[in-house]
Amino acid sequence: MRAFVAIDLSGPEADGFLDLQDRLAVGRALPVTNLHLTLAFLDEQPEDLLRALHEDLADLRHPAFDLTFRGVDLFGGARSRALAVLANPDPVLQKLQKAIKRSLHRVGITSVSRRWRPHVTLRRFKDGGQSPERLQAAIARGATAEIGPVEVTRFSLFQSTLTGAGAVHEVLCDYPLQVFGNDDFDQE
Prior knowledge:
- By secondary structure, the chain is an alpha+beta fold.
- It has a single domain (about 1-175), classed as Cyclic Phosphodiesterase, Chain: A (Alpha-Beta Complex), CATH 3.90.1140.10.
- It is about 25% helix and about 35% strand.
- Strand 8 (about 155-165) and strand 9 (about 165-175) form a beta hairpin.
């Protein structure tokens, strides 16, 4: 099963992302149900490993936090295929991502190794489908965009099914984040 772990942003917080998506106006807009911030892409995994991951993630204790997003950039390597809004650097988000990576390691899942740049993909396009001028204009339109703060109270394990019309994402399980007092969580 093709899977990933992410913060689902398709609920009430989606309005800011959808407004920015409309302003970018290049490529194909992602459906609201696909708005998320990936914490770990798992690719194809057997169901028994995903069950083990679910059990491990269910035991994870991590605080809820607020996240803000600012500016847009191209994603997809040398042949960029997506425009995304960038998450501001946040130590609590980074600690959550590292905790999830440790869970993957404990259950024997090797996630795809890429430099992690937290973002939300808003638009996709095919190789060469957009002129460099149009892409630069879209980036300029999104350069001063700011979304948030968005309250993050959970993360999710998703199944991703590829179709001719794009990926269809389904939440398999949600994992709540806790509200701690300042002394209850060590952020180091």
